[in-house]
Amino acid sequence: MTRKINLLLLLFSLIGGAIGFGIGEVLLHQLSGEVPSIVLIGLYFGILALCVGLSCLIAEMIKPRLNGSSWRQRYVGASWKLLVPATLVLLFALGTLLEFVYELNLNGAKQVKNIVFVIDDSGSMDVNDPNGDRYEATKMLIGKMDQDKEAAIVVFDDRVQLLQPFVRLKNQEVKNEVYSRLDEMEPMQGGTNFNLALNEAMEQIQGRSTSRRGTLVILLSDGFSEVDPSGVLREYQSSGVAVNTIGLGLDNPEGSELLKEIAAVTGGQYQDVSEADQLSFAFQKIYDNIGERTLVTERTGVTQNSSYYMILRIVFVILLGAALGLGLGVLFDNRHLAKSFSIGGATGGVLAGLLLEFGLSGADFPDGIIRLLACLILAAVIALFTLVVPVKDNQPRISERRGRFGGARSAGNAVGRRQGENQNRGF
């Protein structure tokens, strides 16, 4: 048992980690919202493992420093057959499972899947939003919502209209139907009544509620309404539904104070928007904080600062790192390398998990750099850990090499030599 390192394998492992990161990022951005997140994250880790495994296999073929020349001569064909099962399949399966568990609401916090838009259509909106930017902002946000989310739209003045009951936004065709409802809506032009609007929204929520789907409300208004917040918001408080409020061009301080109170009572946020063309940014800000979470992206919403999910992410990345190391050991059919790589992968997983947990900020480019560093850490630590955990040399003994080329060995000795080699390798 010796401590050694294959510098070529280290270099190739880093290259494989960078390539896997690049492919994973493309999938993360192109398929987000189109493919369930548990499948997407499974693919991310599976492709990373495949690229690292392929690179390490090529490096050890070129320079068999860790596994020995007898492996290259006799068993490299088996390693090629094991490449996909030991890397892509293993990490895809484990990544999918861990992401599924990570998205479960095990600590009682529900991920927001349903959004109710409550939009003021009173007469004063002709002045504050003459071009209907509030509806364009609504369409913009609906267009960005994932296929597993649902939306409902309530418009109001001194009356209330359910413009769109809850509908799952499963494809573009459904979204286009929602857009058509908004485009064809007749102006209401009356006063402002928050009571009717919030009560209608809650009826829709209660009729659609499930134990696993969280809901939030976006209430947009430019006016003031006579309302008793403690009464109309009681159901929102008991159901844990946050009402995020947006005040558009509010000159009346009573109106802004009321919207602030509604948000504060329900656990939502208030935004003051002076011009209607800024509403898209206000809607986007709310959506960015609705409580999304995956193992490789920033956690938002009520679980953003959760110690439970912080620990869970780090532990799961440790398991993924250990699985990546184990897969490389299986790839080379060497239990000693499997042990070294697995411990190295777990150690790299600690560092990568901490980096993801405390480095992600929600900004695209910086978060991409954080994920790249996490992938490179995993790849590097696994390759370096043979300096820490020794591995057994798979090279045949000198006497065996002499016998192989001397031609004076009996059949029994040949069998003994093969058995001796097999004792130094495999599982």
Describe, in plain words, how this protein is organized in 3D.
A hairpin with a 3-residue loop joins strand 2 and strand 3. Residues 395-425 have low confidence and may be disordered. The protein is elongated. The chain has 427 residues and is α/β, with parallel strands linked by helices. It has helices spanning 7-30, 37-62, 69-74, 76-103, 125-128, 133-144, 172-183, 194-208, 229-232, 234-239, 253-266, 279-287, 307-331, 335-359, 364-384, 398-406, 411-423; strands spanning 112-120, 150-156, 160-168, 214-221, 242-248, 270-273. The chain has a six-stranded mixed β-sheet with strand order 3-2-1-4-5-6, sandwiched between helices. The two termini are 16 Å apart. This is VWFA domain-containing protein. The chain crosses the membrane at residues 36-59, 80-102, 308-331, 343-363, 369-391. Residues 114-290 form the VWFA domain. Keywords: Membrane, Transmembrane, Transmembrane helix.
